[in-house]
Design goal:
77% of the residues lie in helices and 0% in strands. By secondary structure, the chain is an all-alpha fold.
Amino acid sequence: MNAAELASYDQIKSSIVGKYKNVNPDSKLLHFFCGFSAGFIAVCFASPMDVVKTRIMNVILNIYYS
């Protein structure tokens, strides 16, 4: 999850700074937006895999019934 978050943060930040030349790369609003977006992307990738992992672990222990 951390790798996806760091990679997406850097990609989003460099895309915004490259596209909009008047944006300060150290502004708090840019950091907030990039961090929020990176967190959302990381959760979208990690959460489904975490659910599958939890279900597999519970099936092995015969706890999960669906």
